[in-house]
Specification:
The protein contains 22 helices and eleven strands. It has 650 residues and is mainly α. Strand 4 and strand 5 form a beta hairpin. The chain starts with a strand and ends with a helix.
Amino acid sequence: MNNVLDYGGYRFFQASYDTDEKGTVLSVNHDRAGTLITYLGYLLMTIGMLWTLFGKHSRFGAVRKKLKKLNSKNLLLIAFICLSTNMFHAQNVDQEIDSLVNTQIINKEHAAKFGRILVQDLDGRIKPINTLSSEFLRKISRKTYFKFGATSLDANQIFLALHGNPKLWTQVPIIKIDRKKGGKLYDSIPFHTNGLVSFNDFIDPQVGYLLETQVEEANTKKPSERSEFDKEMLKVDERFNILFNIFSGNYMKIFPKRDDDTKTWYSHVHDFSDFNPEDGSFAKGILTQYFIEIEKAKVSNDWAFAEDKLAYIQKYQEVLAKDIIPSKQLIEAELWYNNLNLYFWLFQVYFLLGSFLLIMAIVRIFSNKKLIKLVFNALVMIIFFSFLLHTGNLLLRWYVAQHAPWSNGYEMITFAAWSLMLIGLVFYKKSDFVVALATLFTGTLLFVSYLDWISPEITNLMPVLKSYWLKIHVATIISSYAPLALSALLGFMTLVLIIIKNESNQKVIDIKIKELTYINELSMTIGLFVLSIGTFLGGVWANESWGRYWAWDPKETWALISIIIYAAVLHFQLIPALKGKLTFSIASVFSFYSILMTSFGVNYYLTGLHSYATGDPVPIPKFVYIVTAIVLVLTLWAYYRQQKFNKSKL
């Protein structure tokens, strides 16, 4: 796909292909004049939007002038979410497990060298074992390290230990469960001091696998019909099976095959009868020798012989797969990216800084002392530095993945977070609160990227995405979400201001409401224009790659719906019955649901070219209902307060 054949004035496209990749659906186009006219239309509409942004007499320019006239330097009050920490109270420490874990401590420096060995994942990507071990540990324990008692192991250490002595590790608690969701089924499973359970805890000598019946029942149900218990069973079953495959050696695919057209790598449990005899003999025995040397090194603390074995494996890979293995620079960059784990720290930093900045912005409503201003500006500078780190991490992932980092759900969220922080900094001078709200929401997005249903794994691009248009079209579309998200936040804050407005603070609050509404309109206008341009670019990509502009794919359809909704809201100012700051603020909040549907709903609930799911409807997360309920209550409350305030003025 994305490879067009031009012949005799005709264009031949691979519109799609059979699932077995043996058949192609061909599309033929012979309309060069029509294409040029269409592209000219896109260009003229884009120029018109840019003219609106920079023209002196446009609505955008008029709103900008009104904003400049407002002589206000203060902000509003916002209630922030307090995170409750669920503490596990340690019960009796299992001394036997503790002593077992202590025997499995592998030298950290040696484990890091083991993490540099290349492995092929199930997707066919060649990457350091460090990447695989980090993904594995986060998947089964939801942490980036393993801890039991006083012993703490990093991802490299535990991944190596699991392969070196799998029988012992079946007894060690390493699997994450939710006892509340599991209910009575988990009553028979012992509680360990680290809050995890072991592989053996799920095995009963008489019954067998404890979750077998429940998992089978959950699998027979449609995703939309699954309860919290069913989802818990499927999650834990996945973790159990990942650990089983680790113990079975199925993930240690570190041995390439000489002159293999499929470029497939094999684990040490492969029979190697189809290998060159010399290569097969090496691959079959080297890991056994390596694990023996590790056991010796634990006693002698001399890791030289174990490192020699790693050097042999590395040399084997370099000779037999020199045409497909990543360069040393790429490997180093990926290891650096893994070790930084920067998004994990950034979401905490953004939360903290955003909270402090909001507090300072509130204080600045009533006081503009020099010290307060200095502290406020210092916080903004720290946020700007955090944004630079965020940018660097985004570029680092781009380099490691060798494609633009917005090709899956995780990357879309982290890039949208970056875009939002950028737009917040761009509007920083317009109002104190803009960068604070942008920082908080950026932290929220990065936090969401760490939830169970988001995979941070770097994957190979699907054939349909192997195009330079991925960088242009997708980046433009996702970038448009940032100003529209800021618009929703501004609308939400305006509702809060309307609620807290009274006789004593009316003057300052009214100025704040004007300020927020003006910035809201500017932000929404920019977001709508960028979204529209991104949709045009999507049409160009589709035409250049598959010979059609539009196919009513769910993502295309919802992008159009979003454009229509935001275009309608921006025209509220021309309709007397809908003209007003309260109406505009409410509309800006609820309009963002169309973006959520476009970005998340389509990706995970519908089928199509842009979907990350299979099309089966899955349950909507509970927090969506909670947030929607809060927004509805706030909207009704703001409406009631506005009506009451207006009556008091009559």
